Amino acid sequence: MYLAHFGLDEPPFRITPHTEFFFAGAKRGATLEALIYAITHDEGITKVTGEVGSGKTMLCRVLIERMPERVKVIYLANPSLSRDEILHVLAADLGVEADSDRTTIMLRALQERLIELYGEGDRVVVLIDEAHAMPLETLEEIRLLSNLESNRHKLLQIVLFGQPELNEHLALPNMRQLRERITHSFVLEPLIRSDIEQYVEFRMRAAGYRGPSVFDAAALKLLASASEGLTRRINILADKSLLSAFASDTHAVSATHMRAAIRDSGYRGKVWAWRPWAIAAAGLGVGIAIGLAGRHVFQTPEAAEASAPSTATVAAPAEEPEAAPPVPEPPVIEGAPTAGPLARERYAATQAWLRDAPADSYTIQLMTVADSPALESFLQDAAAKTGPQALHVYRLKLRGELLYGVAYGLYPSTEESLVAITGLPSVLKARGPYLRSIASLRQDSAR
Fold this sequence. Notes:
five-stranded parallel β-sheet; four-stranded antiparallel β-sheet
Protein backbone atom coordinates (compact mmCIF):
# COMPACT_ATOMS: atom_id res chain seq x y z
CA MET A 1 0.00 0.00 0.00
CA TYR A 2 2.80 2.44 0.87
CA LEU A 3 5.37 1.18 -1.66
CA ALA A 4 4.98 3.95 -4.26
CA HIS A 5 4.83 6.59 -1.52
CA PHE A 6 8.33 5.68 -0.32
CA GLY A 7 9.73 4.66 -3.72
CA LEU A 8 10.00 0.97 -2.77
CA ASP A 9 10.09 -1.97 -5.17
CA GLU A 10 8.78 -4.46 -2.60
CA PRO A 11 7.82 -4.59 1.09
CA PRO A 12 11.00 -4.15 3.17
CA PHE A 13 9.81 -5.69 6.43
CA ARG A 14 8.05 -8.95 5.65
CA ILE A 15 8.24 -11.44 8.52
CA THR A 16 8.51 -14.47 6.23
CA PRO A 17 12.14 -15.44 5.50
CA HIS A 18 13.31 -13.72 2.32
CA THR A 19 16.97 -14.58 1.79
CA GLU A 20 17.73 -11.50 -0.30
CA PHE A 21 16.99 -9.49 2.85
CA PHE A 22 19.46 -11.38 5.03
CA PHE A 23 21.22 -8.91 7.32
CA ALA A 24 24.83 -9.97 7.76
CA GLY A 25 25.62 -7.48 10.51
CA ALA A 26 25.50 -8.18 14.26
CA LYS A 27 27.70 -11.25 13.67
CA ARG A 28 25.02 -12.94 11.51
CA GLY A 29 27.37 -13.02 8.53
CA ALA A 30 30.23 -14.36 10.61
CA THR A 31 27.96 -17.06 12.07
CA LEU A 32 26.90 -18.06 8.56
CA GLU A 33 30.53 -18.38 7.45
CA ALA A 34 31.37 -20.42 10.55
CA LEU A 35 28.44 -22.78 9.91
CA ILE A 36 29.53 -23.35 6.32
CA TYR A 37 33.04 -24.06 7.53
CA ALA A 38 31.87 -26.51 10.21
CA ILE A 39 29.63 -28.37 7.75
CA THR A 40 32.31 -28.69 5.07
CA HIS A 41 35.05 -29.78 7.48
CA ASP A 42 33.45 -32.83 9.14
CA GLU A 43 32.68 -31.06 12.42
CA GLY A 44 29.79 -33.32 13.49
CA ILE A 45 26.92 -31.68 15.39
CA THR A 46 26.51 -27.89 15.53
CA LYS A 47 23.93 -25.97 17.57
CA VAL A 48 22.38 -22.53 16.94
CA THR A 49 20.09 -21.03 19.58
CA GLY A 50 18.19 -17.76 19.84
CA GLU A 51 14.99 -16.28 21.21
CA VAL A 52 11.71 -16.39 19.31
CA GLY A 53 11.99 -14.01 16.36
CA SER A 54 15.78 -13.64 16.50
CA GLY A 55 16.30 -14.82 12.90
CA LYS A 56 17.09 -18.54 13.23
CA THR A 57 14.86 -19.63 10.35
CA MET A 58 16.22 -16.88 8.10
CA LEU A 59 19.78 -17.99 8.90
CA CYS A 60 18.80 -21.59 8.14
CA ARG A 61 17.30 -20.67 4.75
CA VAL A 62 20.34 -18.60 3.77
CA LEU A 63 22.59 -21.46 4.85
CA ILE A 64 20.72 -23.77 2.47
CA GLU A 65 21.27 -21.35 -0.41
CA ARG A 66 24.96 -20.86 0.35
CA MET A 67 25.88 -24.52 0.62
CA PRO A 68 28.60 -25.66 -1.80
CA GLU A 69 27.42 -27.61 -4.82
CA ARG A 70 28.56 -31.03 -3.53
CA VAL A 71 26.70 -30.72 -0.21
CA LYS A 72 23.28 -32.37 -0.10
CA VAL A 73 20.95 -30.62 2.34
CA ILE A 74 18.10 -32.34 4.18
CA TYR A 75 15.87 -29.77 5.88
CA LEU A 76 13.59 -30.98 8.68
CA ALA A 77 10.99 -28.35 9.60
CA ASN A 78 8.74 -30.72 11.57
CA PRO A 79 10.15 -31.12 15.09
CA SER A 80 7.51 -33.60 16.24
CA LEU A 81 8.99 -36.54 14.33
CA SER A 82 9.41 -39.73 16.32
CA ARG A 83 12.77 -41.54 16.34
CA ASP A 84 11.51 -44.03 13.75
CA GLU A 85 9.98 -41.33 11.56
CA ILE A 86 13.20 -39.35 11.36
CA LEU A 87 15.05 -42.43 10.10
CA HIS A 88 12.42 -43.00 7.41
CA VAL A 89 12.54 -39.35 6.34
CA LEU A 90 16.33 -39.47 5.97
CA ALA A 91 16.13 -42.77 4.11
CA ALA A 92 13.57 -41.36 1.68
CA ASP A 93 15.63 -38.21 1.01
CA LEU A 94 18.77 -40.26 0.39
CA GLY A 95 17.06 -42.84 -1.83
CA VAL A 96 17.47 -45.73 0.63
CA GLU A 97 15.01 -48.61 0.37
CA ALA A 98 13.20 -48.69 3.74
CA ASP A 99 12.26 -52.37 3.72
CA SER A 100 12.64 -52.84 7.48
CA ASP A 101 11.37 -51.15 10.63
CA ARG A 102 14.30 -52.33 12.73
CA THR A 103 16.47 -49.40 13.83
CA THR A 104 19.76 -51.26 13.47
CA ILE A 105 19.00 -52.35 9.90
CA MET A 106 17.87 -48.83 8.93
CA LEU A 107 21.04 -47.30 10.40
CA ARG A 108 23.16 -49.83 8.54
CA ALA A 109 21.43 -49.04 5.24
CA LEU A 110 21.85 -45.30 5.84
CA GLN A 111 25.54 -45.77 6.61
CA GLU A 112 26.14 -47.73 3.42
CA ARG A 113 24.39 -45.02 1.37
CA LEU A 114 26.36 -42.25 3.08
CA ILE A 115 29.64 -44.08 2.43
CA GLU A 116 28.64 -44.37 -1.23
CA LEU A 117 27.91 -40.63 -1.43
CA TYR A 118 31.14 -39.79 0.38
CA GLY A 119 33.09 -41.87 -2.11
CA GLU A 120 31.53 -39.81 -4.91
CA GLY A 121 32.70 -36.59 -3.25
CA ASP A 122 29.33 -35.59 -1.80
CA ARG A 123 28.58 -34.50 1.76
CA VAL A 124 25.24 -34.68 3.56
CA VAL A 125 24.00 -32.21 6.16
CA VAL A 126 20.74 -32.37 8.12
CA LEU A 127 19.32 -29.00 9.23
CA ILE A 128 16.75 -29.39 12.02
CA ASP A 129 14.58 -26.33 12.68
CA GLU A 130 12.69 -25.86 15.97
CA ALA A 131 14.87 -28.56 17.56
CA HIS A 132 13.80 -27.44 21.05
CA ALA A 133 10.35 -28.93 20.35
CA MET A 134 11.72 -32.37 19.47
CA PRO A 135 10.83 -35.32 21.72
CA LEU A 136 13.78 -36.31 23.88
CA GLU A 137 13.90 -39.80 22.34
CA THR A 138 14.22 -38.22 18.88
CA LEU A 139 17.08 -36.08 20.11
CA GLU A 140 18.72 -39.28 21.31
CA GLU A 141 18.33 -40.67 17.79
CA ILE A 142 20.29 -37.64 16.57
CA ARG A 143 23.20 -38.89 18.68
CA LEU A 144 23.04 -42.30 17.00
CA LEU A 145 22.98 -40.65 13.59
CA SER A 146 26.10 -38.67 14.48
CA ASN A 147 27.92 -42.00 14.96
CA LEU A 148 27.61 -42.78 11.26
CA GLU A 149 31.17 -42.46 10.00
CA SER A 150 33.84 -44.04 7.86
CA ASN A 151 37.28 -44.95 9.12
CA ARG A 152 38.35 -41.29 9.21
CA HIS A 153 35.38 -39.03 8.49
CA LYS A 154 31.93 -38.15 9.77
CA LEU A 155 29.41 -39.11 7.13
CA LEU A 156 26.55 -36.92 8.35
CA GLN A 157 26.74 -33.31 9.53
CA ILE A 158 23.89 -32.15 11.77
CA VAL A 159 22.86 -28.57 12.67
CA LEU A 160 20.25 -27.98 15.39
CA PHE A 161 18.34 -24.69 15.35
CA GLY A 162 16.27 -23.98 18.45
CA GLN A 163 15.12 -21.65 21.19
CA PRO A 164 17.04 -21.48 24.50
CA GLU A 165 14.88 -24.34 25.78
CA LEU A 166 17.06 -26.60 23.64
CA ASN A 167 19.95 -25.91 26.03
CA GLU A 168 17.74 -26.96 28.95
CA HIS A 169 16.92 -30.25 27.25
CA LEU A 170 20.57 -30.92 26.47
CA ALA A 171 21.48 -30.21 30.10
CA LEU A 172 19.42 -33.21 31.30
CA PRO A 173 21.52 -36.13 32.61
CA ASN A 174 20.22 -38.53 29.97
CA MET A 175 21.27 -36.10 27.20
CA ARG A 176 24.92 -36.02 28.29
CA GLN A 177 26.17 -38.17 25.42
CA LEU A 178 24.49 -35.98 22.81
CA ARG A 179 25.68 -32.82 24.54
CA GLU A 180 29.29 -34.03 24.41
CA ARG A 181 29.06 -34.53 20.64
CA ILE A 182 28.19 -30.88 19.92
CA THR A 183 31.41 -29.37 18.59
CA HIS A 184 30.22 -25.79 17.91
CA SER A 185 27.52 -23.67 19.55
CA PHE A 186 26.33 -20.29 18.26
CA VAL A 187 23.90 -17.84 19.84
CA LEU A 188 21.89 -15.28 17.84
CA GLU A 189 21.87 -12.37 20.27
CA PRO A 190 19.22 -9.61 20.03
CA LEU A 191 20.31 -6.60 18.00
CA ILE A 192 21.66 -3.60 19.90
CA ARG A 193 20.61 -0.02 19.08
CA SER A 194 23.33 0.61 16.47
CA ASP A 195 22.60 -2.77 14.84
CA ILE A 196 18.90 -1.93 14.64
CA GLU A 197 19.64 1.33 12.83
CA GLN A 198 21.81 -0.51 10.32
CA TYR A 199 19.26 -3.32 9.98
CA VAL A 200 16.37 -0.96 9.21
CA GLU A 201 18.47 0.99 6.72
CA PHE A 202 19.69 -2.20 5.05
CA ARG A 203 16.16 -3.57 4.61
CA MET A 204 14.90 -0.30 3.16
CA ARG A 205 17.76 -0.16 0.65
CA ALA A 206 17.34 -3.83 -0.25
CA ALA A 207 13.68 -3.08 -1.05
CA GLY A 208 14.69 -0.35 -3.50
CA TYR A 209 14.60 2.82 -1.39
CA ARG A 210 17.07 5.47 -2.56
CA GLY A 211 16.26 8.58 -0.51
CA PRO A 212 17.56 9.89 2.83
CA SER A 213 16.96 7.92 6.03
CA VAL A 214 13.25 7.52 6.71
CA PHE A 215 13.34 6.69 10.45
CA ASP A 216 14.44 9.54 12.74
CA ALA A 217 16.50 9.05 15.90
CA ALA A 218 13.51 9.22 18.27
CA ALA A 219 11.61 6.60 16.27
CA LEU A 220 14.63 4.28 16.26
CA LYS A 221 15.04 4.67 20.02
CA LEU A 222 11.43 3.63 20.59
CA LEU A 223 11.85 0.78 18.09
CA ALA A 224 14.90 -0.53 19.94
CA SER A 225 13.09 -0.47 23.27
CA ALA A 226 9.80 -2.03 22.16
CA SER A 227 11.35 -4.71 19.92
CA GLU A 228 14.02 -5.71 22.46
CA GLY A 229 16.29 -6.30 19.47
CA LEU A 230 14.28 -9.20 18.02
CA THR A 231 14.20 -8.99 14.23
CA ARG A 232 10.63 -10.25 13.86
CA ARG A 233 9.36 -7.53 16.19
CA ILE A 234 11.50 -4.94 14.40
CA ASN A 235 9.90 -5.97 11.09
CA ILE A 236 6.36 -5.75 12.46
CA LEU A 237 6.88 -2.37 14.11
CA ALA A 238 8.79 -0.86 11.19
CA ASP A 239 6.09 -1.98 8.76
CA LYS A 240 3.28 -0.51 10.86
CA SER A 241 5.15 2.76 11.41
CA LEU A 242 5.69 3.14 7.65
CA LEU A 243 1.96 2.63 7.16
CA SER A 244 1.27 5.25 9.82
CA ALA A 245 3.61 7.75 8.14
CA PHE A 246 1.92 7.04 4.80
CA ALA A 247 -1.48 7.75 6.35
CA SER A 248 -0.07 11.05 7.69
CA ASP A 249 1.17 11.95 4.19
CA THR A 250 4.80 12.28 5.26
CA HIS A 251 8.00 10.61 4.13
CA ALA A 252 9.60 10.58 7.59
CA VAL A 253 8.81 8.10 10.36
CA SER A 254 8.78 9.99 13.66
CA ALA A 255 8.29 8.98 17.28
CA THR A 256 4.55 9.63 16.86
CA HIS A 257 4.26 7.03 14.10
CA MET A 258 6.37 4.53 16.03
CA ARG A 259 4.24 4.98 19.18
CA ALA A 260 1.15 4.25 17.11
CA ALA A 261 2.78 1.08 15.76
CA ILE A 262 3.77 -0.02 19.27
CA ARG A 263 0.25 0.53 20.62
CA ASP A 264 -1.25 -1.43 17.75
CA SER A 265 1.19 -4.32 18.16
CA GLY A 266 1.05 -4.59 21.94
CA TYR A 267 4.85 -4.53 22.34
CA ARG A 268 6.05 -2.53 25.30
CA GLY A 269 9.70 -3.50 25.58
CA LYS A 270 11.66 -3.09 28.79
CA VAL A 271 11.05 0.61 29.42
CA TRP A 272 7.68 1.29 27.80
CA ALA A 273 5.03 2.86 30.02
CA TRP A 274 1.67 4.44 29.29
CA ARG A 275 1.63 8.23 29.08
CA PRO A 276 -1.39 10.48 29.75
CA TRP A 277 -1.71 11.24 26.07
CA ALA A 278 -2.05 7.55 25.29
CA ILE A 279 -5.38 7.22 27.13
CA ALA A 280 -7.21 9.06 24.39
CA ALA A 281 -5.49 7.17 21.56
CA ALA A 282 -7.84 5.24 19.33
CA GLY A 283 -5.12 2.80 18.15
CA LEU A 284 -3.25 2.43 14.92
CA GLY A 285 -5.95 0.40 13.19
CA VAL A 286 -8.61 3.13 13.37
CA GLY A 287 -6.15 6.04 12.96
CA ILE A 288 -4.51 4.63 9.87
CA ALA A 289 -7.85 3.65 8.36
CA ILE A 290 -9.11 7.24 8.73
CA GLY A 291 -5.85 8.65 7.37
CA LEU A 292 -5.88 6.33 4.37
CA ALA A 293 -9.49 7.16 3.63
CA GLY A 294 -8.65 10.87 3.69
CA ARG A 295 -5.72 10.40 1.37
CA HIS A 296 -7.65 8.39 -1.21
CA VAL A 297 -10.65 10.76 -1.16
CA PHE A 298 -8.96 14.16 -0.99
CA GLN A 299 -5.50 13.86 -2.53
CA THR A 300 -5.31 15.03 -6.12
CA PRO A 301 -3.04 13.43 -8.72
CA GLU A 302 -0.94 16.63 -8.72
CA ALA A 303 -0.48 16.42 -4.95
CA ALA A 304 0.43 12.74 -5.16
CA GLU A 305 3.09 13.53 -7.75
CA ALA A 306 4.47 16.40 -5.64
CA SER A 307 4.75 14.16 -2.55
CA ALA A 308 6.84 11.47 -4.28
CA PRO A 309 10.20 10.90 -2.53
CA SER A 310 13.38 12.31 -3.95
CA THR A 311 15.92 9.85 -5.30
CA ALA A 312 19.50 10.12 -4.10
CA THR A 313 22.26 9.46 -6.55
CA VAL A 314 24.30 6.53 -5.26
CA ALA A 315 27.78 5.69 -6.36
CA ALA A 316 28.15 2.00 -7.16
CA PRO A 317 30.97 -0.12 -8.56
CA ALA A 318 31.29 -0.04 -12.32
CA GLU A 319 29.19 -2.78 -13.87
CA GLU A 320 31.56 -4.08 -16.53
CA PRO A 321 35.07 -2.60 -16.35
CA GLU A 322 37.78 -4.08 -18.46
CA ALA A 323 39.50 -7.17 -17.10
CA ALA A 324 42.32 -6.40 -14.72
CA PRO A 325 45.84 -6.68 -16.21
CA PRO A 326 48.10 -9.50 -14.99
CA VAL A 327 49.36 -8.89 -11.47
CA PRO A 328 53.16 -8.95 -11.07
CA GLU A 329 54.61 -11.16 -8.38
CA PRO A 330 54.72 -9.06 -5.16
CA PRO A 331 57.54 -9.32 -2.63
CA VAL A 332 57.10 -11.96 0.07
CA ILE A 333 55.60 -10.46 3.25
CA GLU A 334 55.30 -12.29 6.54
CA GLY A 335 51.78 -13.66 7.02
CA ALA A 336 50.84 -13.21 3.35
CA PRO A 337 48.59 -15.90 1.81
CA THR A 338 50.08 -18.39 -0.62
CA ALA A 339 46.85 -18.79 -2.61
CA GLY A 340 48.07 -16.80 -5.61
CA PRO A 341 49.76 -13.59 -6.84
CA LEU A 342 46.65 -11.39 -6.59
CA ALA A 343 46.00 -12.53 -3.02
CA ARG A 344 49.59 -11.74 -2.03
CA GLU A 345 49.57 -8.38 -3.83
CA ARG A 346 46.30 -7.27 -2.22
CA TYR A 347 47.49 -8.47 1.19
CA ALA A 348 50.63 -6.35 0.87
CA ALA A 349 48.63 -3.29 -0.23
CA THR A 350 46.12 -3.78 2.58
CA GLN A 351 48.79 -3.42 5.26
CA ALA A 352 49.28 0.26 4.44
CA TRP A 353 45.57 0.80 3.72
CA LEU A 354 44.53 -0.63 7.07
CA ARG A 355 47.12 1.47 8.89
CA ASP A 356 46.13 4.76 7.23
CA ALA A 357 42.33 4.41 6.93
CA PRO A 358 40.34 6.52 9.47
CA ALA A 359 39.29 4.42 12.46
CA ASP A 360 35.72 5.75 12.29
CA SER A 361 35.24 4.77 8.64
CA TYR A 362 33.73 1.56 7.28
CA THR A 363 34.33 -1.14 4.72
CA ILE A 364 32.28 -4.05 3.37
CA GLN A 365 33.46 -7.53 4.34
CA LEU A 366 32.81 -9.89 1.46
CA MET A 367 34.01 -13.24 2.79
CA THR A 368 36.41 -15.13 5.04
CA VAL A 369 38.22 -18.18 3.76
CA ALA A 370 41.22 -20.37 4.46
CA ASP A 371 44.47 -19.89 2.52
CA SER A 372 43.31 -21.88 -0.51
CA PRO A 373 42.74 -21.56 -4.27
CA ALA A 374 39.20 -20.36 -3.42
CA LEU A 375 40.69 -17.09 -2.15
CA GLU A 376 42.60 -16.38 -5.35
CA SER A 377 39.66 -17.45 -7.52
CA PHE A 378 37.26 -15.11 -5.68
CA LEU A 379 39.69 -12.19 -5.96
CA GLN A 380 40.19 -12.79 -9.70
CA ASP A 381 36.42 -12.84 -10.30
CA ALA A 382 35.86 -9.77 -8.14
CA ALA A 383 38.73 -7.83 -9.73
CA ALA A 384 37.29 -8.51 -13.19
CA LYS A 385 34.12 -6.68 -12.10
CA THR A 386 35.49 -3.84 -9.97
CA GLY A 387 39.22 -3.63 -10.54
CA PRO A 388 41.64 -4.84 -7.86
CA GLN A 389 42.41 -1.55 -6.09
CA ALA A 390 39.27 -1.50 -3.90
CA LEU A 391 39.77 -5.12 -2.75
CA HIS A 392 41.51 -5.61 0.60
CA VAL A 393 42.90 -8.85 2.03
CA TYR A 394 43.74 -9.20 5.70
CA ARG A 395 44.48 -11.98 8.17
CA LEU A 396 42.36 -12.99 11.16
CA LYS A 397 41.78 -15.84 13.57
CA LEU A 398 38.37 -17.46 14.02
CA ARG A 399 38.09 -20.01 16.84
CA GLY A 400 41.82 -20.61 16.69
CA GLU A 401 42.03 -21.09 12.91
CA LEU A 402 44.00 -18.73 10.68
CA LEU A 403 41.78 -17.31 7.92
CA TYR A 404 41.89 -14.47 5.40
CA GLY A 405 39.18 -11.88 5.01
CA VAL A 406 38.32 -9.99 1.82
CA ALA A 407 36.84 -6.49 2.18
CA TYR A 408 35.72 -3.93 -0.38
CA GLY A 409 35.91 -0.15 -0.46
CA LEU A 410 36.15 2.56 2.21
CA TYR A 411 33.15 4.64 3.32
CA PRO A 412 32.90 7.55 5.77
CA SER A 413 29.55 6.53 7.26
CA THR A 414 27.32 3.53 7.87
CA GLU A 415 24.66 5.00 5.59
CA GLU A 416 26.98 5.26 2.59
CA SER A 417 28.37 1.77 3.12
CA LEU A 418 24.89 0.24 3.45
CA VAL A 419 23.83 1.96 0.24
CA ALA A 420 26.99 0.64 -1.46
CA ILE A 421 26.15 -2.94 -0.44
CA THR A 422 22.93 -2.81 -2.44
CA GLY A 423 24.86 -1.72 -5.55
CA LEU A 424 27.54 -4.40 -5.44
CA PRO A 425 27.92 -6.73 -8.44
CA SER A 426 26.45 -10.19 -7.85
CA VAL A 427 29.87 -11.84 -7.56
CA LEU A 428 30.62 -9.63 -4.53
CA LYS A 429 27.24 -10.42 -2.96
CA ALA A 430 27.64 -14.18 -3.26
CA ARG A 431 28.89 -14.76 0.29
CA GLY A 432 26.65 -12.31 2.14
CA PRO A 433 28.55 -8.97 2.46
CA TYR A 434 28.15 -6.98 5.64
CA LEU A 435 29.35 -3.79 7.27
CA ARG A 436 32.66 -3.66 9.21
CA SER A 437 34.27 -0.71 10.95
CA ILE A 438 37.96 -0.10 10.29
CA ALA A 439 38.57 -0.16 14.05
CA SER A 440 37.16 -3.70 14.39
CA LEU A 441 39.06 -4.83 11.29
CA ARG A 442 42.31 -3.64 12.83
CA GLN A 443 41.56 -5.58 16.00
CA ASP A 444 40.92 -8.78 14.03
CA SER A 445 44.06 -8.33 11.98
CA ALA A 446 46.23 -7.65 15.05
CA ARG A 447 45.28 -10.84 16.87
